Amino acid sequence: MAQKPSIPKGTRDFSPSEVNKRNYIFDVVKKHFQTYGFQPIETPSFENSETLMGKYGDEGDRLIFKILNSGDFLNKVDPGFFKEYVQVEIILKDIYSEIKLRAESFKELDDYSNRNFTQETKDFLIPEYKDRLASFSPGDYSYYIERLLNLYVHSNFGDNEDIETFGLLPILKEAFGNFLKHQTSKISFSISEKALRYDLTVPFARYVVMHQNELDFPFKRYQIQPVWRADRPQKGRFREFFQCDADVVGSDSLLQEVELVQLYDAVFTDLKLEGVTIKLNNRKILAGIAEVIGERDKLIDFTVALDKLDKIGIEGISKEMREKGISDAAIEKAAPLFALRGSNLEQLSVLSDLLKDSEEGAKGVGELSFIITTMEELGLQSANLKIDVTLARGLNYYTGAIFEVAAPEGVSMGSIGGGGRYDDLTGIFGLKDVSGVGISFGLDRIYLVLEELGLFPEAIDQSLQVLCVNFGDREALTSLKLVNRLRKAGVKCDLYPSNAKMQKQMKYANNRNVPFVVLIGEQELASNSFVVKDMVKGGQETYSLDKPEDFLNNL
Amino acid sequence: MAQKPSIPKGTRDFSPSEVNKRNYIFDVVKKHFQTYGFQPIETPSFENSETLMGKYGDEGDRLIFKILNSGDFLNKVDPGFFKEYVQVEIILKDIYSEIKLRAESFKELDDYSNRNFTQETKDFLIPEYKDRLASFSPGDYSYYIERLLNLYVHSNFGDNEDIETFGLLPILKEAFGNFLKHQTSKISFSISEKALRYDLTVPFARYVVMHQNELDFPFKRYQIQPVWRADRPQKGRFREFFQCDADVVGSDSLLQEVELVQLYDAVFTDLKLEGVTIKLNNRKILAGIAEVIGERDKLIDFTVALDKLDKIGIEGISKEMREKGISDAAIEKAAPLFALRGSNLEQLSVLSDLLKDSEEGAKGVGELSFIITTMEELGLQSANLKIDVTLARGLNYYTGAIFEVAAPEGVSMGSIGGGGRYDDLTGIFGLKDVSGVGISFGLDRIYLVLEELGLFPEAIDQSLQVLCVNFGDREALTSLKLVNRLRKAGVKCDLYPSNAKMQKQMKYANNRNVPFVVLIGEQELASNSFVVKDMVKGGQETYSLDKPEDFLNNL
Q: Which residue of B has its CA nearest to A79?
């Protein structure tokens, strides 16, 4: 009767220590979101399917978790759907009968073993059944005809009795499986009208459009909520995870980009994660490069190769570019990018020169230049700001600045944050010309980095500061009064719930990592006092029950 | 192309002000959970279906949101399912043909209009088709035979040509709908293996069993996460809402109950919601009453009527009890309960006398008595503690104490919290003999009460404390430096992102309810100063840019 419990793959239980550490990160991030004037919103975990579908590409659509309609969800399915299965079966059986029939007539004509039988039958059947089969198995209808024909011929022209059981059924099953594959998305719209949030960006766009009349633009919002993706679970890739986003919509001022760089710097500095690198690029610069070297189609191949410059050198990347079909002329034109070195300002000057003939590229250099020079003026606390023209994340999505944050050198971890500017996010929901820019923090990775570097505050695992030992009913009552007093002062404090053996109670205190154990036994009751054992330094001290503040002051 | 966006019924978007108010409640609750030694855990939003199904009764199962398997979810459906639809159609058409055939033979026998035709045909067909139809429409197979027969007779024995189109089809559709209803739960197990969390209690039990070797018992956990229910949405009833639970498992000490009463008192006092009533009962007392008055089956009717004592008096409740079939003898025996008045201690003495012959009842009185007398000793900050023997929430679930919290008098609102002790929660997952007790806070209702009584802190809607007006690039850069300084001191501060008209910038400041506006124009640049306008009290003051702390100290 009892089940051995488990949780779905790709999901996680979080222990108290893990929740506390995650909340520590969230709290630091939230604090800075707020001092930067961002306001929190929250959206429902599930949205109407049409809000999400088609917004993340085909692959994204596939990874969206769909929720089954509640109640009699099959009622909305077109009954024709159920009939089609049977029709597939009937058609395939018809074809098989036809093959048999034709074989008989070949036999009558004494042409039984005619090599032409197979070809002629095929030539006859394929056009004949094209329309009937095509709607069930688009593109490969002739495949089933050929298989049925082969089956018949290899069964010694139907002499083998088992053919229908062992030969025909698997083909029918396969054909039906193929038919179902084509039906899956159709039927999923009939039986599911809601889907779990895939990211926070599309729901945010939907929110802005729905609430546009209540909002003051520029609207700066932050949102920290879980999202769900039906990705194949892997180490470090989960089906449920938190996203943590800050976006501004309704302002195209580059001061927003400046501010987001500062925000990254403020958060990581506060997390004591010093030395992160904020990489900066601009979609317009990428477009400009493509334009100038004349390889618009191969931009991704180009940047992917360029990104390996440090590892494989100019020779290496030139070779890779050539292999990807990028012309020698293009590679030659792009040469200044291979020599892009030095300070951000030096790099800007090279880019400015390279892209002077591309209007869009020059605009990108101008934008990048504003951010860089303003930040030079304002300064950073602990992060580095670095131009990276290979940075292309979410290329189709971003229209201006592109950000990505790398963990400090020596920590091997992908990006721990990223973002950029998008010019028309709310357009999909009918609100045009609202520019937005935003960044996000990668909670799970930041967690791993802080753990690796030992940067979580020590007190984070101290879920209980004081435990009172329970010596019996009378002692417990007096202990409870002290516990009350300590809790009112904000101390995490507990009375062991039963008069268990001292050893058991002390073991519990040890396991929970409690720094102070309070003892109120018969003797203390008599003298109106309590004893505090210091579990870390050792030793103990006695206080008066009338002056618990003496202990509080020592905590 | 653009969609008019909406969100699923029963779900909500939360505006910044709403999120801040909700977080205010959560933060207060969390703070006290922690000082009481509770530790946070979090569990996945979706669980394996078998973890949830069957734990909440049939009605609960129906209200669980199921998640469609990702990928080709139809592949796991038995192909027989699809065939069955067609079989239903074939059987019904067979029956119809049979009716026609029999009508012809009646006609030949010149018995065309024989009144016996209908009865004889029915008598023949019903046993004939019993087995074939019953598997599709259990219980009502003969219903379709009668309908088809009536259809045929009323179409003037088949003379009306439209019968197949207008008569037969609706019957087929209805029969198929009925068939589908019987298939829904079967197929939902094939196409869905995960389901959204319905409450926090079952996932907690699953967590305890899965992680039993890592936990120190008694394990005190709190959990604040959303749950989902496919309930019909109503005013105040949502399909997604947060639950906020604290439970202790692994201790049967009544000190836990005492502590939970104190915890309620601490939280509501801190929320400034003074005068809530914590109602207390015990499942064993209810069982004892049922035993003593000899009406075990009518316990719910009895307590429902008893609850109306204050409204309709002894006469009224006696009448209602009689109407529900409770005997006069039982009502007479229960009479002491009708006179239950006065202090908790006085009521305990009446209960103790009434239940002295019921072992279980007497045990319940003893437990209640311990909690009441201990609380008399410890005292409450602002809540009232009141015995309420009519309190029966979740009767099947609780085995000992039952809690419920009512809003202060004058606020019309259902319970704002509740809980109780359960002796064997983890048994369903194979871990026996672990007693638990817990309480929960009703976030949405507490929110409404605080809103109604104006108890949210005033500063909660102040998402921005300082806004700097933007007078142009040079001024903006200097402003940004000041903004930086203020943010580092924890001030929620912003620079308007563009050099828009003064009027527009001031309107934004007003809309966002900003108390201080900072002006750094050409003149201030020249004199290295900044002007602060007090938007609440009026007036303005000038500070040196070298000493922003003078302003900070005035904030």
A: B85
Give the tokens for residue B515. 């108390």
* pLDDT < 70 regions, chain A: 1-3, 79, 85, 108-115, 133-141, 156-169, 172-173, 176, 179-180, 182, 394-396
Cis-peptide into B218, omega within 30 deg: yes
Q: Is the ipTM of this complex over 0.85?
A: yes
Which spans in A155-200 are helix H?
A: 169-191
- Across the interface, whether the CB atoms of A72 and B184 are under 8 A apart is answered yes
pLDDT band at B1 (very low <50, low <70, confident <90, very high): very low
Q: If residue B243 lies in a helix (H) or strand (E), which one and from where to where?
A: strand B240-249
Three-class SS of residue B406?
strand
> By C-alpha distance, which of B22, B240, B506, B449 is closest to A46?
B240
B79, B194, B262: residue with CB nearest A484: B262
Q: β-pairing, B529-534 with B540-544? A: antiparallel
CB contact under 8 A, A34 and B65: no
Using a CB-CB distance cutoff of 8 angstroms, which residues of chain B are in contact with residue A31?
490
CA distance B531 to B534: 10
Q: Using DSSP bridges, classify how beta strands B66-68 and B192-196 pair: parallel, antiparallel or unpaired.
A: antiparallel
Closest CA to B391 of B274, B491, B283: B283
Spatial strand order of the sheet with A466-468 comes to A493-495, A466-468, A516-519, A529-534, A540-544
Q: Which amino acid is at A413?
A: M
The pTM of this model reads: 0.89
Residues of chain B with Cβ-Cβ distance to A480 below 8 Å are: 255, 258, 374, 378
- The kind and range of the H/E element at B544 are strand B540-544
Q: Starting at the earlier edge strand, list the strands of the sheet with A66-67.
A: A46-48, A194-196, A66-67, B66-68, B192-196, B46-48
Query: Which residues have a Cβ under 8 Å from the Cβ of A293 and sit 6 or more positions away?
Result: A302, A326, A330, A331, A333, A334
Longest Cα–Cα distance of chain A, Å, equals: 120
* Residue of B184, B255, B482 to mutate when probing chain A, most A C-beta within 10 A: B255
Question: What local confidence, expressed as pLDDT, does residue A236 receive?
Answer: 82
The first and second tokens of residue A496, run together, are 């062991």
- CA–CA dist A371, A394 (Å, integer): 20
DSSP of A218-274: SEEEEEEEEEE--PPPBTTB-SEEEEEEEEEES---THHHHHHHHHHHHHHHHTT-T
In tens, the pLDDT along B316-325 reads: 989 999 999 9
Sheet arrangement for strand A384-387: A39-40, A219-228, A240-249, A436-441, A417-422, A401-406, A277-282, A384-387
The string of pLDDT tens digits covering residues A51-94 is 999 888 888 888 999 999 987 777 777 767 777 767 777 777 78
| Cis status, amide bond into B138, omega within 30 of 0 | no
Residues in chain B with CB shorter than 8 Å from the CB of A214 are 15
Question: In the predicted model, what is the mean pLDDT of residues B41-65?
Answer: 93
